Amino acid sequence: MTDIQKKIIKLKEDKNAIVLAHYYQTMDIQEVADFVGDSFELAKIAQNTEKPIIVLCGVRFMAESAKILNPEKTVLLPASNAGCLMADMITPSDVIKLKKEHPKAAVMCYVNSTAETKTYCDICCTSSSAVKIAKSLKEEEIIFIPDRNLGSYVAEQVPEKKFYFYRGFCPIHNIVSADEVVEARQKYVDAPVVVHPECNKAVRDAADFIGSTSAIIKYVENSDKKEFIIGTEIGVVERINQLIPGKKAYLLSNHLSCINMKKTKITDVLNALENLEEVIELDKDTMDKARITLERMVSVN
Ligand code: SF4
Predict the structure, then answer these.
(1) CA 47, CA 51: separation in Å to the nearest integer?
(2) Of the candidates 101, 89, 119, which has an alpha carbon nearest to the alpha carbon of residue 109?
(3) Are 127 and 198 in contact (CB under 8 A)?
(4) Which domains does the chain have, with CATH numbers?
(5) What distance in angstroms lies between residue 13's CA and the mean position of ligand 1's atoms?
(6) Neighbour count for residue 285 (Cβ, 10 Å)
(7) Is 141 within 8 Å of 162 (Cβ atoms)?
(8) SS3 sequence, 126-191?
(9) d(CA 105, ligand 1 centre) in Å
(10) Any atom of ligand 1 within 6 Å of the Cβ of 273
(11) Fewer beta carbons below 10 Å: N end or C end of the chain?
(12) Per-residue pLDDT of the chain in tens (301 residues, 90 and over written 9)
């Protein structure tokens, strides 16, 4: 453990803070976190923690969700410029337009969205909960925003409902091609291809397993196979290679590194705890409306 990591661990105790890290964070940050998980797991931990300070090592929408679920707590985002390219692709006016076009449809919003966008929606979902949530809705029509790839994946699993999509996507996952799957299979002949539903349909169709980051890690843990081709962010590959003995993960594509997730450095986590910054601030009305969508999501699971 480095001196900076030791300082962070001491500061967590001194300030009574909890550090939450997404799987896409670098391993030095994952090592000092109290909990590492995907968006849904982090939201649930943030909702249940008793600690007054939450340091969210991830991107802005995750810190916003933690704040919305804990309005009385101090939520810190260590890298204030860590946004999400997908979340920024949609605006409230886009949602209003879709609602006008499809008035009978429920609006289901991937958590990878801004707090403001969430206020125009009926329920949130994560990649791990999206299918279950779509099935749980009483409406037969669903507007799915902002990720057209996750949306089409959910629609395939829930054929009894009619879906309308927005054009958003994750540039990191969407750029991976089916040709890269073919190339990886030729290189690692015995390794199954395991991809995230944010990948495009051609890649999903070429894969052996599709799942959220948590589901991908569980798949690797429980599989009899020793090698895996992983179609999600490189942080997941690093975690598997470091923490799951006897298993070897290979990255499906060199494109799979999220610049925004990598903006948080270990020194930023130290700074966040030392100086209590950046504090996430949202207006009460936005939080109250967005909280309904997040609490509905958590209650389905
Ligand atoms: S990997 Fe994609 S969806 Fe996730 S934070 Fe980065 S840009 Fe956003």
Answers:
(1) 11
(2) 119
(3) yes
(4) 3-83+261-282 (3.40.50.10800), 87-169+289-300 (3.40.50.10800), 176-251 (3.40.50.10800)
(5) 31
(6) 9
(7) yes
(8) CCCCHHHHHHHCCCCEEEEECEHHHHHHHHHHCCCCEEEECCECCHHHHCCCHHHHHHHHHHCCCC
(9) 26
(10) no
(11) N
(12) 999 999 999 999 999 999 999 999 999 999 999 999 988 788 889 888 999 999 999 999 999 999 999 899 999 999 999 999 999 999 999 999 999 999 999 999 999 999 999 999 999 999 989 999 999 999 999 999 999 999 999 999 999 999 999 999 999 999 999 999 999 999 999 999 999 999 999 999 999 999 999 999 999 999 999 999 999 999 999 999 999 999 999 999 999 999 999 999 999 999 999 999 999 999 999 999 999 999 999 888 6
Mutate to test the pocket of ligand 1, among 38, 60, 260 (most ligand atoms within 8 A of CB): 260
- Tell which atom from ligand 1 comes closest to the C-alpha of 260: 6
Instruction: Identify the bridge partners of residue 55 per DSSP, sorted by sequence position.
Output: 19, 76
The structure tokens 């300030």 sit at: 15
Cα separation, 213 vs 195, in Å, equals 9
Does the global pTM surpass 0.90? Answer: yes
**C-alpha torsion sign, points 136, 140, 142, 148:** positive
86 in ligand 1 pocket by Cβ < 6 Å?
yes
If 0-12 CB within 10 Å is exposed, 13-18 middle and 19+ buried, where does residue 117 land?
buried
| Residues β-bridged to residue 147 | 168
Which backbone phi and psi does 143 adopt, to 5 degrees? -90, 120
Atom 1 of ligand 1, residue of closest alpha carbon: 258
